[in-house]
Write a structure and sequence with these properties.
about 325 residues; alpha/beta; nine-stranded mixed β-sheet; five-stranded mixed β-sheet; 7 helices; about 30% strand
Length: about 325
């Protein structure tokens, strides 16, 4: 495993899938943790790791929740390091809303023995924009089999939208991937294609807040009568995405690399829908913290083969 400033290379074994276990919205909280109410979530994580046996654990945001989170952040890092498996988180809207701000959180992630978190390029929106390349050594050279993008989607933001009377008004809604992050994504894929002998590697994007296309994808899937060839899982609450399309999905389509977008955020949604040849997946919520739906707890498994093809499935924990 070779590590650079914000690009990390992993090497997979030929003939064996590279397996990722995603945990979503763990949401440890100092007060509830001290009351002994984190056991359900901790036991869920331990069972998932034992069953899936991942090469990498990803976390799609809201690892902690509430105002007092410093103790819980330290516990999370100790828990994850204890598996002796590399783990890679992105920040959610709750991660840094309390006393543990982004600088404090990033510092603890970087000090953790097995955490792959990188703050990312200076000047880029947010904290925690970085990449992991899954590589295969072959014929004296290293080929990038699949690239993983980790991007900070912030918290809340103001948007200027046109109201019912046609008058523009400001509204505050959940945040979005920013334009300079989209530009960075394009630049990094261009660089990966260059070092990959001119071949664009397939890729996946890990974020917390879903992009607006999650809503369009679900509407289309529902219209199809929930065609199993198009998707799986279920949505039980409103899709909490930004109110505007900032062009990120258009860039994904134009570059033709990204095959998966994996998000968290909405705890009782776990639909995974193929939309315009890109699979948009709500990662399964891990544990019972904040709010959840009984029976919808566990993790999401992403398998990558030698050609960079992926398979996505939810792993439920009773």
């Amino acid at each position: 495993m070779q590590q650079e400033e914000y690009v990390i290379n992993f090497y997979k074994e030929r003939g064996r899938d590279f397996v990722i276990l995603n945990l979503a919205d763990v949401q440890f909280n100092d007060i509830f943790d001290l009351l002994g109410k984190r056991n359900f979530t901790v036991n869920t994580i331990k069972r998932l790791v034992e069953e899936v046996r991942p090469d990498l654990i990803t976390l799609t945001g809201d690892q902690v929740w509430g105002f007092r989170t410093k103790r819980s952040l330290r516990y999370l890092c100790k828990l994850m390091d204890g598996f002796d498996i590399p783990w890679a988180p992105v920040l959610g809207n709750h991660d840094c809303s309390g006393r543990a701000d982004k600088e404090y959180t990033a510092a603890h992630y970087r000090r953790s023995n097995n955490c792959m978190f990188r703050s990312g390029p200076k000047g880029l929106f947010g904290c925690g924009n970085y990449c992991i390349n899954v590589c295969l050594a072959e014929g004296g050279r290293e080929n990038i089999v699949h690239s993983l993008f980790f991007m900070d989607t912030g918290g809340r933001s103001e948007y200027l939208v046109r109201g019912e009377a046609g008058v523009k008004e400001k509204i505050t809604r959940y945040d979005n991937v920013k334009y300079n992050q989209i530009s960075w994504y394009k630049t990094m894929l261009g660089e990966f294609r260059r070092v990959n002998g001119g071949v664009m590697p397939p890729s996946s994007v890990f974020i917390h807040i879903p992009i607006i296309q999650y809503s369009a994808a679900y509407d289309l899937w529902r219209t199809s009568g929930f065609d199993p060839a198009m998707g799986f899982g279920e949505n039980n609450e409103t899709i909490s995405c930004p109110p505007v399309d900032n062009g990120f999905f258009a860039m994904i389509k134009a570059l033709g690399s990204t095959k998966n977008v994996i998000c968290g955020h909405d705890h009782t949604n776990c639909a995974s829908i193929l939309y315009e040849d890109v699979r948009l997946t709500y990662a399964l919520k891990t544990g019972d913290r904040c709010y959840w739906k009984e029976g919808l707890s566990g993790g999401t498994k992403i398998s990558i083969d030698d050609s960079g093809n992926t398979a996505v499935e939810h792993i439920f924990v009773e």
